[in-house]
Design a protein that fits this description.
Flavocytochrome C3, Chain A, domain 1; binds flavin-adenine dinucleotide; FAD/NAD(P)-binding domain; single chain; 7-stranded mixed beta sheet; alpha/beta; 18 strands; about 35% helix; Methane Monooxygenase Hydroxylase, Chain G, domain 1; 15 helices; 3 domains; about 15% strand; binds succinic acid; 4-stranded mixed beta sheet
């Protein structure tokens, strides 16, 4: 089937849905999403959205905190513009119907602002500990009320369509004409032809064995953009969240940093608090510091987890402020009011991604990127907590304005595109290859390209991944594509990009820590790591 649309949006998290709501008055919109529409990292966000809303806060302070955590690589003009745009974007969410928690002081119109690592003020607006679910459900509701927007669930974007492919000749400054998309139910591959395309496919946590991310986070957007020739930056900066629930029955369950913002203390399994010796902010130090400290303590003691102690808070407080986390822990036999929670670090957020300008435009014409898939220059070497939902909102807004303008000014016609050519591919009779390779990549990324790295481990990872990539590529072309196969090919490529970026950065900065170069080297590496398909 061929589907023509003015705006094609890949992904239905906060970035894709916000953009859709803004462009839908200016043309037809198709949202393609690879599972159910709400299934996204957005839906699981707990802590909230950072923005300057408190009376004791200022744009300057939020800018300063973001720049400090970014360790010299955040782009100041981007930081300033995102921070100052924040309150307007939050008001918009409220106008659409998002119900943020109000202050406990019973002043009806005052929002309860949480605190998280690296923030010098309370500035995290939240809906209890279910911020993402509240935001996602309201955005979906709004999108579904618009006639101009079609949502295609269980539709899996395989590859972007570019002018180079159409003409059979690679060119610089390529143009994006849409995407080939697999319908997971019928297994048909559709051709979506668009005037403007937005990549809003989220992050890549599934590249690692332990992650807070849902299954959709397989780096598909970065992989597609890289294959289409767009520059990719800073993939070495993978943020590990220090506190994911450690329990055999809990898959990917985050224990929000907001708990430490309310006084939670990290302890070793014997009860000793340990963050004092790592950072003056103790348990509320920036995430990279906390994750590395936990990693080091676990390696030293051989323990499988550390503890997050909330036992000095009352049951009533915990149930009101963190109902989701309280219930989850309780269902697993942990009453957090009386028992410290077992936690471990896990891959959480990709600071790097597809390079964009201040308007979300990539180097490929008519292709925009926003949300976690993008590298806008906001986060630099480390992301300040709760700045990602903010970034997605601000950039979705800007990208939308820019796309509408471009469409108005230049019109753009729909080109003729050939349907997907399956070649001689046959049904795969060895799904075990996919399962095995998937597992191998995620384990080796965890062991060799994790919180603490070394050149030797990175080189070993690179050799292994390249071998696996050869095998996967062969398998990909010989087999009829499935969702699992597309994801495997993408996590292999994204892993390779992470390792390649990490090998280029011969210093330790922010989220990239290597035993071979333990210091920051401003003379040579105070710059983004940018890579492009050769
Ligand atoms: P997502 O919300 O991940 O959406 C991506 C969408 O793309 C999904 O709909 C997915 O199905 C779709 N997709 C992916 N690949 C394809 C494909 N090939 N074809 C079709 N569709 C595709 N950040 C904060 O600022 N504050 C927080 O409190 C916070 N808490 C978090 C808690 C958890 C557990 C996690 C995992 C993350 C948290 N983050 C938080 C980070 C933040 O949630 C994400 O960075 C943000 O939601 C990303 O939004 P997005 O729209 O870019 O992507
Ligand atoms: C959390 O609630 O700890 C997650 C916040 C974030 O990732 O920004």
């Amino acid at each position: 089937m061929e589907i023509k649309t003015d705006f094609l949006i890949l992904g239905s998290g906060i970035a894709g849905l916000t953009y859709a709501l803004k462009v839908c008055k200016h043309g037809s919109v198709a949202i393609v999403t690879k599972k159910e529409k709400v299934e996204s990292s957005t839906n699981y966000a707990q802590g909230g959205i950072a923005s300057v809303l408190g009376l004791d806060d200022s744009f300057d302070l939020h800018i300063e905190d973001t720049l400090t955590v970014g360790e010299g690589l955040s782009h100041p003009e981007v930081v300033e513009s995102v921070v100052t745009d924040g309150p307007a974007r939050i008001s918009e969410l409220v106008a659409w119907g998002v119900n943020f928690s109000k202050s406990r002081s019973a002043q009806e119109d005052v929002y309860d602002l949480g605190r998280e690592g690296g923030h010098s003020r309370r500035r995290i607006i939240h809906a209890q500990d279910l911020t993402g679910r509240e935001v996602e459900s309201i955005l979906v509701e709004q999108v579904e009320s618009q006639q101009n927007i079609m949502i295609y669930e269980d539709f899996f974007a395989i590859n972007l369509i570019t002018e180079s492919q159409v003409k059979g000749k690679r060119r610089d400054g390529d143009i994006c004409y849409g995407a080939y998309v697999l319908d997971r139910n019928t297994r048909e591959i559709h051709t979506f032809i668009s005037k403007v395309t937005l990549l809003a496919t989220g992050g890549a946590g599934k590249v690692y064995f332990f992650t807070s991310n849902p299954d959709i986070s397989t780096g598909d957007g970065v992989a597609m953009a890289y294959r289409a020739g767009a520059p990719i930056a800073n993939m070495e900066f993978i943020q590990f969240h220090p506190t994911c629930l450690y329990h055999p029955e809990a898959k990917n369950f985050l224990i929000s940093e907001a708990l430490r913002g309310e006084g939670g203390v990290l302890r070793l399994t014997d009860g000793t608090p340990f963050m004092e010796s790592y950072h003056p902010l103790k348990s509320l130090a920036p995430r990279d510091v906390v994750a590395r400290a936990i990693d080091g303590e676990l390696k030293k003691s051989g323990a499988e987890h550390v503890l997050l102690d909330m036992t000095d808070k009352s049951t009533a407080f915990l149930k009101k402020r963190f109902p989701n986390i309280y219930d989850k822990c309780f269902s697993l036999g942990i009453d957090m009011a009386t028992t410290p929670i077992p936690v471990v670090p896990a891959a959480h957020y990709s600071c790097g991604g597809v390079v964009t300008d201040l308007y979300g435009e990539t180097a490929v014409q008519r292709l925009y990127a926003c949300g976690e898939v993008a590298c806008t220059g906001l986060h630099g070497a480390n992301r300040l907590a709760s700045n990602s939902l903010l970034e997605a909102l601000v950039f979705a807004h800007r990208s939308a304005l820019q796309s509408i303008e471009a469409l108005k000014e230049r019109g753009f016609a729909f080109p003729a595109i050939k349907p997907w050519d399956p070649g001689k591919a046959v049904d795969s009779d060895e799904s075990i290859v996919v399962a095995h390779n998937w597992d191998e990549i995620r384990r080796l990324m965890w062991h060799y390209v994790g919180i603490v790295r070394s050149e030797k481990r990175l080189a070993r990872a690179q050799r292994r991944i390249r071998l696996l990539q050869k095998e996967i590529t062969q398998y990909y072309w010989d087999s009829i594509v499935t969702g699992d196969l597309i994801e495997l090919r993408n996590i292999a490529l994204v892993s390779e990009l992470i390792v390649r970026c990490a090998l280029k950065r011969k210093e330790s900065r922010g989220l990239h820590y290597t035993l071979d170069h333990r210091e920051k080297d401003d003379n040579h590496f105070k710059k983004d790591t940018i890579i492009k398909k050769r």
